[in-house]
Every structure is written in structure tokens, then in C-alpha cells.
Specification:
Organism: Streptomyces griseorubiginosus
Radius of gyration: 21 Å
CATH class of the largest domain: Alpha Beta
Structural class: alpha/beta
Domain Leucine-binding protein: 35-395
Helix content: 25-40%
Number of domains: 2
CATH topology of the largest domain: Rossmann fold
Family: Belongs to the leucine-binding protein family.
Number of helices: 12
Strand order of the largest sheet: 9-8-10-11-12-15-16
Pfam families: Peripla_BP_6
Largest sheet: 7 strands, mixed
CATH architecture of the largest domain: 3-Layer(aba) Sandwich
Number of strands: 16
Distance between the termini: 38 Å
Oligomer: single chain
Mean pLDDT: 91
Protein name: Branched chain amino acid ABC transporter substrate-binding protein
CATH superfamily of the largest domain: Response regulator
């Protein structure tokens, strides 16, 4: 998929009119105008690009709104987008590029939890805030021993998406008590997000009284799932749960149905994209996915956002994370405003001091976003714990249950 560049800043950012670069990296001029950059990192081409583009343009709309409404007087925000292609090494390189930009005050993204793992240390070393609208692996905020001893690894990392701990449990409860499924086959793509989500679903489904009749793993990029179909068919499963992205799951469900296995496939938010239905076609009918928050089109505050996204003709799918990207970007912008307000209405000339202040002020976030309440707990996790189960009905994702997982 071609990376769209029409709405994002490319190359080095120019100074505002009559501006001059001060020796500490900030952009300033005698009239008080300052240009500050917010980076956004996501897969903008290739696998996962449908949701990645939704993140990019959600952030773009937030930046445009802030500039139009002069949210921070005297400051113009620019978005600079980076394509990580869902690859951790590329994400790490992008993080280095973002933090190396002396006009940059924060970053939104990435999409994938595995990519986030490679980026966190880079942002922490630069004391720059990073807010993901979509990462869900609990270890990112609560440490590798999150199930027994939670400990926040990086004070610079936040997210507006709730965790797999809640998402996996919510899905298991709906599968067992909502769908009345008793025998599940669990598959994952071996990636940080997919394997973690599948593990939590597996554990919770068994706690509820269900039976996991089989487990298996696939590789990202696989196209032929014949052996998996055979295993699922012989297992007697009445549901297949998949931890991973839509690229593989859309092919799995198609090959399952073609192989005579007429059971639904249930996945996480990595599957919740229009591309899943477009690729799987009629085979996707009845399949399910959980996603963070409540449906964007039911939130009055998101109405203008959706209208803008559509009117601009932006590519990608805003439905999964667009609103969460908008709110993540807004949290950074509001934190900049708090830093400016605390400095007698002037942008701190020391970029490091500004970045540090932004981190502290993001932690104090407390506002109504277009996805709901935006605030963070002591780990950097969103306090908005709502989740929704969607089901493919007549060729479209339809919300079937919204609630809060415990």
C-alpha cells in the first residue's frame, strides 16, 4: 500500500515566519511563534497498514484541530509520520529519528506491542513521552512479571488502549457465557501481542469451565493453513480463538469454512478491521473480535472526528484506533499547554526541559476525549477499561456487547 504523504510533514520542519533556531534546539521567533513536532509511528504500508493508517490520520486530525483552535497560543504543531512496517527493528530506528528531532515533544504509536518493546528504551533515554493508542500487552506498562509483581518499566510510556489481561478475559467470558461455547481450539501467531492474548484467553476460558481441545501456532506471512484446518476439524472444537492480526486470520477463517469446518473464528482487536471482512468474504460471516472502548460511531464527541476523516478521504480504518490516536495526540498537546502555562506563557527554550514537563503533565491528564475519559493510572495504563465484542453481520462489523472486564 502506498504511504500517503499529502497531510504529513516531510523532512526537516521549517521554522515559523521570521523565526530563528535557538542553540538549545527549540524553534522561536520575536513574535513568539514556535513550531513543535509530534511523531507518529505505525505500519503505513504492508501488513497491518489498514489499522496503521487509521492511527496516522487520527493523530493528524487532532493536530489540525489543535492548530485551528489555537489550543496552545503561539505554537503550531506538525505531525511527522514514520512507517515501521510492523517490524521491531524499523520501529526502533524510527524512535531514534523522532527523539533526534530537536523540535519533537512526543510520539503517538506504535500499533504493535512487539514493535513497542523495541522503542520504549529509546524514548525513555530521551525522556520523551510515547503514547500508544493500540498496544495491549500488559508487560509494556506493568513489567515482565505483571501477573505476580507489577512494576512500571518506563515512566515515559503510556497507552489509551486497555490491556490483553482485560481483553482476553472479556473474550473468554463472552465465548463461554454469551456464545455458550464449551470446546475451543486456540491459535496464535507467536508474536508478543498474539501469543500474549491467546494465553490469557486460554487460561480464562478454562477457569470458566470450558475445554481447550487443542492449541497451535502459525507464522506471520503464512498463506496455507491446511494442516491447521485438519487439526481443528478433528478436535471437535465449536470455536477457534486466534491471537494475532487480520492478515492471517482472514485467510484461516476462509480455509476453515472451505474445509467444511463451519465454526466461528474469534479474535482480538488486531483482527478488528474492514480488511478482515474484505479478504475473507462470506466466510467471515458470524466471526467475532473484541476491540478497545465503545463503538466510535456511538460516541457523540466522535461524530465530528468521523465526519472529518471521511470528508478528507483518508485511507485506512478509523474504527479500531482512530479515536484513541486522536486522544493520545491531544494528551500530548494538552501537556505542552500545561508546560507553557507553567512557564509564564512561553515555550521553554530547552527542549529537554520541555520534554520532561510534557511527560509529567501527560501523567496528570484528565479530560474528556472523543473516546471517553482520558487519564492514566500509576502504570501509564488508561483508566478507561471498556471493551466491545463485534460480530460480522451481513458483511459488516456490528457491536454485540459492550462492557468492562474485571
Amino acid at each position: 500500500m502506498v504511504i500517503l504523504t499529502s497531510v504529513m510533514a516531510t523532512g526537516a520542519l521549517t521554522l515559523t515566519a521570521c523565526g530563528s533556531r535557538d542553540d538549545k534546539g527549540g524553534n522561536s521567533d520575536s513574535g513568539g511563534g514556535t513550531t513543535l513536532t509530534i511523531g507518529v509511528d505505525a505500519p503505513l504500508s504492508g501488513e497491518n497498514s489498514t489499522t496503521g493508517l487509521g492511527i496516522q490520520y487520527g493523530a493528524q486530525i487532532a493536530v489540525d484541530d489543535a492548530n485551528k483552535n489555537k489550543l496552545v497560543p503561539g505554537v503550531t504543531f506538525k505531525l511527522k509520520a514514520f512507517d515501521d512496517k510492523a517490524q521491531p527493528a524499523t520501529g526502533q530506528s524510527n524512535a531514534t529519528a523522532i527523539t533526534g528531532d530537536k523540535t519533537a515533544v512526543g510520539a503517538v504509536g506504535p500499533l504493535n506491542s512487539g514493535v513497542a518493546q523495541s522503542m520504549q528504551q529509546v524514548f525513555a533515554s530521551a525522556n520523551m513521552v510515547e503514547i500508544s493508542p493500540s498496544n495491549t500487552n500488559p508487560a509494556l506498562t506493568q513489567g515482565k512479571d505483571w501477573q505476580t509483581a507489577k512494576k512500571r518499566p518506563y515512566k515515559t510510556y503510556f497507552r489509551t488502549a486497555t490491556t490483553d489481561e482485560l481483553q482476553g478475559s472479556f473474550a473468554a467470558d463472552y465465548a463461554y457465557n454469551g456464545l455458550k461455547k464449551k470446546k475451543v481450539f486456540v491459535v496464535d501467531d507467536k508474536q508478543t501481542y498474539g501469543a500474549g492474548l491467546a494465553k490469557i484467553f486460554n487460561e480464562q476460558f478454562k477457569k470458566l469451565g470450558g475445554t481447550v481441545v487443542g492449541t497451535d501456532h502459525v507464522n506471520t506471512g503464512d498463506k496455507d493453513f491446511g494442516s491447521l484446518v485438519t487439526k481443528v476439524k478433528s478436535s471437535g472444537a465449536d470455536l477457534l480463538y486466534y491471537g494475532g492480526q487480520y492478515d492471517e486470520s482472514s485467510l484461516i477463517t476462509k480455509q476453515l469454512k472451505d474445509g467444511g469446518v463451519k465454526i466461528p473464528l474469534f479474535g482480538g482487536d488486531g483482527m478488528f478491521a474492514s480488511t478482515y471482512i474484505e479478504t475473507a468474504g462470506a466466510a467471515s460471516e458470524g466471526d467475532l473480535a473484541t476491540a478497545v472502548g465503545v463503538p466510535a460511531d456511538t460516541l457523540p464527541a466522535a461524530k465530528t472526528f468521523i465526519e472529518t476523516y471521511k470528508s478528507k478521504g483518508y485511507k485506512g480504518d478509523y474504527g479500531a484506533y482512530g479515536a484513541y490516536s486522536y486522544d493520545a495526540t491531544t494528551a500530548i498537546i494538552k501537556a505542552v499547554k500545561a508546560a507553557v502555562d507553567a512557564n509564564d506563557g512561553k515555550v521553554p527554550t530547552d527542549i529537554n526541559a520541555l520534554r520532561s514537563s510534557v511527560v509529567d503533565n501527560v501523567q496528570k491528564s484528565d479530560f474528556e476525549g472523543i473516546s471517553g475519559k482520558v487519564s492514566f493510572d500509576q502504570y501509564g495504563d488508561t483508566t478507561n477499561k471498556q471493551l466491545t465484542v463485534y460480530q460480522v453481520t451481513k458483511g459488516a462489523w456490528k457491536a454485540v456487547k459492550t462492557g468492562t472486564a474485571s
